[in-house]
Amino acid sequence: MALILGLESSCDDSAVALVTSDRRILAQRVVGQNQAHAPFGGVVPEIAARAHVEVLPGLVREVLDEAGVALGEVDAIAATAGPGLIGGVMVGLLTAKGLALAANKPLVAVNHLEGHALSPRLVDPDLGFPFLLLLASGGHCQLLEVRGVGDYRRLATTIDDAAGEAFDKAAKLLGLPYPGGPAIEALARDGDAKAVPLPRPLVGSPEPHFSFAGLKSAVQRAVAAGTHRPADIAASFQQAVIDCFVDRTRRALAVSDAPTLVVAGGVAANSAVRAALQGLAQEQGRGFSVPPGWLCTDNAAMIAWAGAERFAAGLVDGLDAPARARWPL
Ligand code: KG4
Ligand code: ZN
């Protein structure tokens, strides 16, 4: 049994977790920065990086103390090495390097997307490879065939905005706070998803990709028209995104014989999204797995877990591991 400490700092959440290779989360912390960024209506990279400097080391102390584990008992230190806001990535990666150096432990440089991709396996011991993954977060929207640790085949990506980014932009247009996803989901509960006609970009297209920019522009026009209830716009927008997800994922399932459909990333915290994809899996005769909401949005348990999977496969990194703003899986 290996004990892995994980650090996450690629966006606006400072997070630390200690997990075991047999799927126990001994302790974890996630500290968001929503208040710091709220006046600017989005994440300010410079503010985020400075906040990680202030918060992250203290979270390491708290997590080790809560678990009653000394740094020397940890088997490896994992940290997000990208992709993400480079200042924050550098803070987390360098903190992990310092810990690895001090305790003479191996470093595991984790791709944040791999953290999301493998996160379902932390809570679902029956989820084997391969599986088809819809990864929908603030920075990405991809369909991936996950064949093994470090073995990913990308079937589709977005040609413009990420899905979470679309939620955030639509929320801003509706005067809702950042992050927009949870705010839209809450408002959509009182709305009629058929009230506002909105486009479903690329639905039915033979090409595999996603597109959300046109949807944002349509929301902008619907808001400007001033004739629709905000709740109806929110519900109609959410349904349009879901229809895109379902259509594009159905297309990917047609070219993948992976037995299980998995949804992960921040947008997978949305219960309407989860329900729709579960329905698709059922329709297509595939299994379905989705992590609990707290494991969908950014956290360090998924980074520690990806670190545990890589460590078990002998994939460790040197102290010269680079921080990467861009890093496709
Ligand atoms: O995975 P994540 O926490 O960070 C990134 O790696 O980007 O994803 C954050 C994104 C944000 O755009 C946020 O609005 C969206 O996930 N999100 C949601 C929900 N919760 C978070 N989108 C829709 N519904 C939600 N309940
Ligand atoms: Zn993420």
UniProtKB/TrEMBL annotation:
EC class (word): transferase
Gene Ontology process terms (BP): tRNA threonylcarbamoyladenosine modification
Binding site for Fe cation: H112, H116, D298
Known cofactor(s): Fe(2+)
Gene3D superfamilies for this protein: 3.30.420.40
Cofactor binding comment, as recorded: Binds 1 Fe(2+) ion per subunit.
GO cellular component: cytoplasm
Pfam families: TsaD
Keywords per UniProt: Acyltransferase, Cytoplasm, Iron, Metal-binding, Transferase, tRNA processing
Metal-binding found in the keyword field: yes
GO-annotated molecular function: iron ion binding; tRNA N(6)-L-threonylcarbamoyladenine synthase activity
Keyword Lipid biosynthesis: no
Annotated substrate binding sites: L135, A136, S137, G138, G139, D168, G181, E185, N270
Residues annotated as domain Gcp-like: 25-305
Protein role: Required for the formation of a threonylcarbamoyl group on adenosine at position 37 (t(6)A37) in tRNAs that read codons beginning with adenine. Is involved in the transfer of the threonylcarbamoyl moiety of threonylcarbamoyl-AMP (TC-AMP) to the N6 group of A37, together with TsaE and TsaB. TsaD likely plays a direct catalytic role in this reaction.
Family as reported in the entry's similarity comment: Belongs to the KAE1 / TsaD family.
The protein's name in its UniProt record: tRNA N6-adenosine threonylcarbamoyltransferase
Species in which this protein is naturally found: Sphingomonas kaistensis
